[in-house]
TrEMBL record, chain A:
Keyword set includes Protein biosynthesis: no
Annotated source species: Oncorhynchus kisutch
Gene Ontology BP, a term: vesicle-mediated transport
SMART domains: AP3B1_C
Gene this chain is encoded by: AP3B2
Stated name of the protein: AP-3 complex subunit beta
From TrEMBL, chain B:
Protein name per Swiss-Prot or TrEMBL: AP-3 complex subunit mu-2
InterPro entries found in the cross-reference section: Adaptor_comp_med_subunit, AP2_Mu_C_sf, AP_mu_sigma_su, Clathrin_mu, Clathrin_mu_CS, Longin-like_dom_sf, MHD
PANTHER family: AP COMPLEX SUBUNIT MU
Gene name in the database record: AP3M2
Keywords tagged on the record: Cytoplasmic vesicle, Golgi apparatus, Membrane, Protein transport, Transport
Topology in the lipid bilayer: Peripheral membrane protein
Keyword Mitochondrion among record annotations: no
Pfam entry (one): Clat_adaptor_s
Domain of life of the organism encoding this protein: Eukaryota
Native source organism of the sequence: Oncorhynchus kisutch (Coho salmon)
Main location, first listed in the record: Golgi
PROSITE patterns xref list: CLAT_ADAPTOR_M_1, CLAT_ADAPTOR_M_2, MHD
């Protein structure tokens, strides 16, 4: 703020001194009047190179937008700052862009490239926000760019970015509906996502784009049910509403048998209310009868058994009734109302009553829904009757709704208390409320025969009320009540006739007149007199009263023409000249009917019948009757009118569709466990996945309490029978989770004991790893895979954190959240146990397994941190030492494809990882490193070391950095940028460069977190101290000739059995040392070339194979030490 | 072509005098003239709280909430659960209150940029994105005076540069890396009693609503358990998402990893089926005589079933009938006030001394010639009872696992009157 005022002062009075505060309506204040010069201020500030000025300007502009002032002329000045470094400026620019981009499409395009760049940022926050803004800019031209961005983000490794992608889908759809098909594909993919973060957002996208594609849900149904409890609250609402619709299409009506029981008092038994009133039954009787026959038909066919999936939904939503979010509670309530067996619906009442304590708006909506429910399921709310009592401080709209509910709940047992309450309400000052109360009394009276007289008497007393509105309302209600049994109530009619003198409310007057006309034979003396009075005042009456006067006159004329003939004539004459044509018409019509003339039509004979027919008593109905054909909790239900975009809740199907569509392919643990024997790395993966599955099923609210009942037992039985993954998984987790927790606890207690043990095991694991044979097929990626790979690679690989399995779309996506503090030892043990238990079962699909593993390995290629897109075609230009010999490269290509490609690709595929810090010593932080064999771009004389941090502690690790390197002379370290935060369960990789000075001395340094320091050291194998170069055969021979004598070391060896092919040799050598193959005429000889990283000394290796596995290994190198060591390493590699 | 454009389209903030003082659009701009329908409804409503929360207009639906005398009007274009929007709007208000201390027009205007940043984060394309206050605070730091000064000098920002890591973790409500020098956990058990007492002093309905509000400032990832002496009392509960439901179902123990800072752990309900002790009684004699322009007013308060605890901060308010012109009353203690325009009588009693019961006596002057009002006024009572939870709920113990230090623990009980009415 001080900056701004200083700025303004500088400008020498360009502003009013009192207005520097941007918060106080700058737009209407002195600074930014409509004068455009004022905006020049802002433009200047935006153009300055001081962030503080820019920020100030942006703040003012945002304040203008907030006020609804137009700031669009600043667009060019603002859009320039889209790439500003200052994050707050950037955010505000985004706000501005989203607001005005639509109006200034051309200029907005200038900003697009910034976002495209942002989409590739290693930081997931930046990627996500770039996608958010990009998709919020409503410019049609960029639709293809958005589409691409969404597709990419949908397979991003960060679930947060995937969530953002899901959010972007509806935005794109509203911009260009033609993209629907593409978007559905993305939705389908995201629906398969296993993280809770994504679930809510993608279902929202589904609902907006393709709610009709219910088939997409099948495969994900069980997963959604199981995840539901851990999804954030807003997502829960969307998912529950969608699942309600889904269930209505897929399952059978659980109440179809109940209509039978009902007749036998079934419902009563359930609700414990023996006093279900009969009027209700009468109304529904027909319907029920129909249902009954239907039901019997169905029952005869097949007894109802609830689908286990239906039960799963009900079971998993129930705990959400305890949510603090009213919308979630309402969503569950409507789900139960629409889907649950009648006997179970009751559970929602308590939660709904609880919501009534909330804000009045919440109360309003909840009461609307309770009103609808209380008609269908009165018993449910009866115990909570008193919670609906009205306080004088309630807003009127709430009072009226409570009244509605009370009326719906009234029955013979509680009517006396309810009426007593009503009596208090009638005295209220709030006249609208009083009127509603009178209506309510009327309804109670019609519904409950026993209290009819009491109510009527009470209402008659109200006729002497001082307030006209009250009296009028009473009259209207009494009129309706009297219609039921007029003969007993002539006193009341007389009383009311007297009221015509005083009462002025038209509706009431009209009602009285109608009553007198209708029952004129009960009040034969009064009726003509009333007509006399009315005739006097006819001209001054309201239209509706006039019509009733005509009506009364006609009826009297027919019953008592002697006394009233003249009066009637008079009234009709008055009406004939009335201004209102309805009244004129009516007068003419009635005259023709009742007054006999010579040419009166056939109808006049029936005039009496027409006018004095017995009229059925009106049924006083709740305005909420039948509102439940709208899905409860919806906007349409609230308004009782279909809102745009409302999805009709379908009727139950006659017969259930095939339930097997929800079966998920069994990607069994079994399969994975068998894999473990050969591939130890998988231990971690699979156990993690297992954890995740368990975790998904082990929510905080997880509800293992089984609702016992016949249906329950039925479903659990079939569950196990079908062996479906998620269904049985949830059962398992209920018992499994507990023990696991305790496991963890005890682990930390006996940490020290375990440490040793752990180390041993670790060693074992490593041994297995080292011994692991590399399958041949791996080194020769089939062309098909190649294509796939390049496809994947052509997508920009961002991400500083690694993504092992993320890459594989079909393998389970391993979300970042899934990293759990589960020690490897533990998982080892676990899997061993698993193995034992499943040992008897044969591995089901070995070939497929193989494939999978391979893909996994291949995906490792993709972690390269500095060169994000090394697709095979790009490899050559990227490595500058390769480019020198492009010709030979091409020569090489002509030899065989798979000679060269392994040399460039395989080494990284076989990256060996070493442990830098064990997770126990590192207090939950485990660090591994590997030599990525990429050129270290900041300094070509350094070896790139890729370091991977995994935080398996429960708390985040902060400020990871390198400190205090203790290095041999000449060695240098290029530290990685400090990692500010590594959240619990996250993994992150960084690259550091180390100049080892061409020696195998270890680089010692300290690895620091915000709390601790760890001494660690990295010791390179000699093979990593070099990098490959390309040579022609001739060059190689020439160089080799110069490095004879002391510089040449030769050793004879016998190749190991498996290692006798050319490929195997190449494979092994390139694994041991970072060298590249040199083309060679003879197939008996393999040549390799490289140079040391620091000094650039040549390293030449040749392996000449002879019969029977004998071979000769020659290494030529200026640096004898390196040569010797390399010979040793390669020797070992070839003979083991 | 009908395009679905769901959820919240725009938000308008309207003050009590009917001015729109802030607007925010998440999709294309909706003209503020749409609020005219709202203003119409507002005019029709006799009281501010009688404006219907959902108003249909030809092309949009307006869903509004009223808090702190500000209407938050959301513009919706198509079907959406109304509660979804209402609940979200309330969450917005809560967030503002959390950030600025108060949620007034002035506070919002002063912090318009923060408000905008918050709204931007809370909704994406009209769908809620981050509503958890702990996450928002990682993204956008709440303004404090000190920080405002520092920001102006250094040009640093309120916007956090990090990913709200909480969104990704298993406990999305808790920030990671929390550190305190004093580790403390305070729990307030606050119960509100709602009651309607009839003319004769008998209870028509009474129920207790309780909450446990917590203020937890603990380092690291503490895992807390809270157990009650008498958990069976709780009839219906709703939890903060951190509470492990299963544990509650099985053992009636609250087990949770708390969010950092203030939060509502639990709300509960003790139903009207249980007998509720009413802590206060009112003796009243309010009469209007037909034909006379005077009315009598007598009120005496006394404690009842308070378990030895004193009644404090007692405040009586009553809406007198329209016919009353003025009052001439005499309180034995405290101050009373009568507003002749709104006809609202309020009496600030303070503490009730059981030895000397407070009373308010005197006369009311009525409009001459007007007939006697047909209803006696309802009396609303507010009070507090410290150190006691009316339902008798008692916390047994609080334990912490997962961290090594010893936290300081505190539990406070309080009873308040909720909607406590006496009909006369």
């Amino acid at each position: 703020m001080s900056a701004s005022s200083a700025f303004n002062d500088e400008k020498g009075g360009s502003s009013n001194v009192g207005e520097p505060e941007y918060g106080h309506d700058p737009a209407s204040g002195g600074i930014f009047s409509s004068d455009y010069k004022r905006h020049d201020d802002l433009k200047e500030m935006l153009d300055s190179n001081k962030d503080s000025l820019k920020l100030e300007a942006m703040k003012r502009i945002v304040a203008m937008i907030a006020r609804g002032k137009n700031a669009s002329d600043l667009f060019p000045a603002v859009v320039k700052n889209v790439a500003c470094k200052n994050i707050e400026v950037k955010k505000l620019v985004y706000v501005y862009l989203v607001r005005y981009a639509e109006e200034q499409q051309d200029l907005a395009l200038l900003s697009i490239s910034t976002f495209q760049r942002g989409l590739k940022d290693p930081n997931q926050l930046i990627r996500a926000s770039a996608l958010r803004v990009l998709s919020s800019i409503r410019v049609t031209i960029i639709v293809p760019i958005m589409m691409l961005a969404i597709k990419e983000a949908a397979s991003d490794m960060s679930p947060y970015v995937r969530k953002t992608a899901a959010h972007a889908i509806p935005k794109l759809y509203s911009l260009d509906p033609e993209q629907k098909d593409c978007l559905i594909e993305v939705i389908e993919k995201l629906l398969a996502d296993k993280t809770t973060l994504v679930a809510g957002s993608v279902v929202m996208a589904f609902e907006e784009v393709c709610p009709e594609r219910i088939d997409l849900i099948h495969k994900n149904y069980r997963k959604l049910c199981n995840l539901l409890i851990d999804v954030e609250e807003w997502g829960q609402v969307v998912i529950i509403n969608m699942l309600t619709r889904y269930a209505r299409t897929q399952f059978l009506n659980p109440n179809m048998n109940e209509s039978l029981l009902e007749e036998g008092g079934g419902e009563k038994a359930f609700y414990g209310s023996d006093n279900d009133d009969d009027t209700d039954d009468e109304e529904d009787k027909e319907e029920k009868e129909k249902k009954k026959t239907e039901a019997t038909a169905i029952v005869k066919r097949k007894p109802y058994v609830m689908d286990p999936d239906h039960r799963l939904l009900l079971r998993n939503t129930k705990p959400l009734l305890q949510s603090r979010n009213a919308a979630v509670v309402m969503a569950v309530a409507q789900l139960y109302f629409h889907l649950a067996p009648k006997a179970e619906v009751g559970v929602i009442a308590k939660a709904l009553v609880r919501l009534m304590r909330s804000h009045s708006e919440v109360q309003y909506v909840v009461l609307q829904n309770v009103a609808t429910m209380s008609i269908k399921r009165r018993g449910m709310f009866e115990p909570y009757l008193k919670s609906f009592y009205i306080r004088s401080t309630d807003p009127t709209q709430i009072k009226v709704l409570k009244l509605e509910v009370l009326t719906n709940l009234a029955n013979e047992t509680n009517i006396s208390t309810i009426l007593r309450e009503f009596q208090t309400y009638i005295k209220s000052n709030d006249k609208d409320f009083v009127a509603a109360t009178i209506q309510a009394i009327g309804r109670c009276a019609t519904n409950i025969g026993e209290v009819r007289d009491t109510c009527l008497n009470g209402l008659v007393q109200l006729l002497s009320n001082r307030d006209e509105l009250v009296v009028a309302e009473s009259v209207v209600v009494i009129k309706k009540l009297l219609q039921m049994q007029p003969e007993q109530h002539s006193d009341i009619i007389k009383h009311m006739a007297k009221l015509t003198d005083n009462i002025q409310v038209p509706m009431a007057r009209a009602s009285i007149l109608w009553l007198i006309g209708e029952y004129c034979e009960h009040v034969p003396k009064i009726a003509p007199d009333v007509l006399r009075k009315m005739a006097k005042t006819f001209t001054n009456e309201e239209d509706i009263v006039k019509l009733q006067i005509i009506n009364l006159a006609a009826k009297l004329y027919l019953t008592n023409s002697k006394q009233t003939k003249l009066l009637t004539q008079y009234v009709l004459n008055l009406a004939k000249y009335d201004q209102n044509y309805d009244i004129r018409d009516r007068a003419r019509f009635i005259r023709q009917l009742i007054v006999p003339t010579d040419k009166s039509g056939a109808l006049s004979k029936y005039a009496k019948k027409l006018f004095l027919a017995l009229k059925p008593a009106p049924v006083l109905e709740s305005p909420f009757k039948d509102r439940d054909h709208f899905q409860l909790g919806s906007l349409s239900h609230l308004l009782n009118a279909k809102a745009g975009g409302y999805q009709v809740l379908p009727d139950w199907p006659e017969a259930a569709p095939d339930p097997s569509v929800r079966n998920v392919e069994v990607i069994t643990l079994l399969e994975r466990v068998t894999t473990l024997t050969s591939v130890p790395e998988w231990t971690k993966c699979s156990s993690r996945e297992k954890r995740k599955e368990k975790k998904a099923d082990k929510p905080f609210y997880s509800d293992s309490e089984g609702e016992s009942g016949p249906t329950e037992s039925a479903d659990s039985a079939s569950d196990t029978a079908s062996g479906s993954e998620s269904g049985s998984g949830s059962e398992e987790s209920g018992s499994g989770s507990e023990s696991e927790e305790s496991n963890e606890e005890s682990e930390s207690a006996s940490e020290e004991d375990e440490e040793e043990e752990g180390k041993k095991k670790k060693k074992n694991v490593e041994k297995i790893k080292a011994r692991k044979p590399v399958p041949e097929s791996e080194s020769e990626p089939s062309s098909g895979e190649d294509v796939k790979k390049s496809e994947k690679k052509s997508k920009p690989r961002i991400g500083s954190s690694e993504s092992e399995s993320e890459e594989d779309d079909d393998s389970e996506s391993e979300s970042s959240e899934s990293e759990e503090e589960e020690s490897e030892e533990e998982s080892e043990e676990e899997t061993k146990k698993k193995k034992k238990t499943t040992a008897s079962k044969p591995p089901s699909k070995p070939p497929k397994k193989e494939n999978k593993k391979e893909k996994k390995e291949m995906s490792l290629l993709d972690f390269d941190d500095f060169d994000p897109a090394p697709s095979p075609s790009q490899v050559t230009p990227l490595n500058n030492f390769l480019s020198s010999s492009l010709v030979t490269d091409l020569e090489g290509l002509s030899l065989t494809d798979n000679v060269l490609s392994p040399t460039t690709i395989i080494p990284s595929g076989n990256l060996k990882t070493y442990e830098l810090l064990h997770r126990i010593t590192g207090e939950g932080l485990s660090v591994e490193y590997c030599f990525s064999r990429q050129p270290f771009s900041p300094d070509p004389h350094m070896v790139a070391v890729k370091i991977q941090f995994t935080n398996s502690a429960t708390s985040e690790a902060k400020s990871l950095h390198v400190e205090d390197a203790k290095l041999q002379s000449g060695m240098r370290i290029k530290e990685f940028p400090e990692i500010e935060v590594l959240p619990a369960g996250e993994t992150i990789s960084v690259v550091m460069g180390i100049d080892f000075c061409d020696s195998t001395q270890a680089a010692n340094f300290q690895l620091c977190t915000h709390t601790r320091k760890f001494f660690v050291s990295i010791q390179p194998p000699v093979g990593e101290l070099m990098m490959p170069i390309f040579m022609t055969e001739n060059e190689f021979k020439k160089e080799q000739g110069q490095l004879m004598g002391m510089n040449e070391i030769t050793e004879k060896l016998t190749l190991e059995e498996k290692c006798q092919g050319e490929h195997a040799v190449v494979q092994r050598v390139t694994t041991a040392a970072n060298l590249s193959r040199v083309p060679c005429g003879s197939d008996k000889e393999c040549r390799f070339a490289g140079k040391t990283v620091t000094s650039g000394s040549l390293v030449l290796v040749s392996v000449v194979t002879k019969e029977d596995g004998a071979a000769q290994l020659t290494v030529n190198c200026e640096k004898m030490v390196i040569g010797t060591m390399l010979v040793k390493d390669i020797h070992q590699a070839l003979t083991q | 072509m009908q395009l679905p454009a769901k959820m919240i389209h725009s938000l308008f903030l309207v003050n009590s005098s009917g001015d729109i003082f802030l607007e925010k659009h998440w999709k294309s701009v909706v003209s503020r003239s749409v609020c005219d329908y709202f203003f119409e409804a507002q005019e029709r409503a006799s009281e501010p709280e009688n404006v219907p929360p959902v108003i249909p207009t030809p092309h949009h639906y307006l869903i509004s909430v009223l808090r702190h005398r500000i209407y938050f009007v959301a513009v919706i274009q198509s079907e959406v659960p109304p509660l979804f929007v209402i609940e979200f709007l309330h969450r917005v208000v809560d967030t503002f209150q959390d950030y600025f201390g108060v949620c007034t027009e002035a506070a919002i205007k002063d912090n318009v940029v923060v408000v905008y940043e918050l709204l931007e984060e809370m909704l994406d394309n009209g769908f809620p994105l981050a509503t958890e206050s702990n996450i928002l605070k990682e993204l956008i730091k709440p303004p404090t005076i000190l920080r405002t000064v520092v920001n102006t000098i250094t040009g640093s920002t309120n916007v956090g540069e990090q990913l709200p890591t909480g969104q990704l973790s298993v406990v999305p409500w808790r920030r990671t890396g929390v550190k305190y020098t004093n580790n403390e956990a305070y729990f307030d058990v606050v119960e509100e009693i709602d009651a309607i007492i009839d003319k004769s002093g008998s209870t028509i309905t009474a129920e207790i609503q309780g909450v446990i509000d917590a203020c937890v400032k603990l380092t690291g990832m503490p895992d807390l358990t809270l157990s009650f002496m008498n958990p069976r009392l709780l009839d219906d509960v709703s939890f903060h998402p951190c509470v492990r439901f299963k544990r509650w179902e099985a053992e009636r123990i609250l087990s949770f990893i708390p969010p950092d800072g203030n939060f509502r752990l639990l709300s509960y309900h003790v139903s009207c089926q249980n007998l509720v002790a009413i802590p206060v009684y009112v003796k009243h004699n309010i009469t209007f005589r037909e034909g006379s322009s005077q009315g009598r007013f007598e009120l005496t308060l006394g404690p009842k079933q308070t378990m030895g605890k004193g009644l404090e901060a007692v405040l009586i308010s009553s809406q007198l009938p329209r016919g009353v012109l003025n009052t001439n009353l005499n309180p034995s203690q405290g101050t009373y006030n009568f507003d002749p325009v709104t006809k609202l009588l309020s009496w600030d009693v303070g503490k009730i001394n059981p030895q000397k019961l407070p009373s308010l006596k005197g006369s009311m002057s009525l409009q001459a010639g007007a007939s006697k009002p047909d209803e006696n006024p309802t009396i609303n009572i507010q009070f507090k009872i410290q150190q006691s939870a009316l339902s008798g709920l008692k916390v047994n113990r609080l334990d912490m696992y997962g961290e090594k230090y010893k936290p300081f623990k505190g539990i406070k009980y309080m009873t308040k009157a909720g909607k406590f009415q006496v009909r006369t």
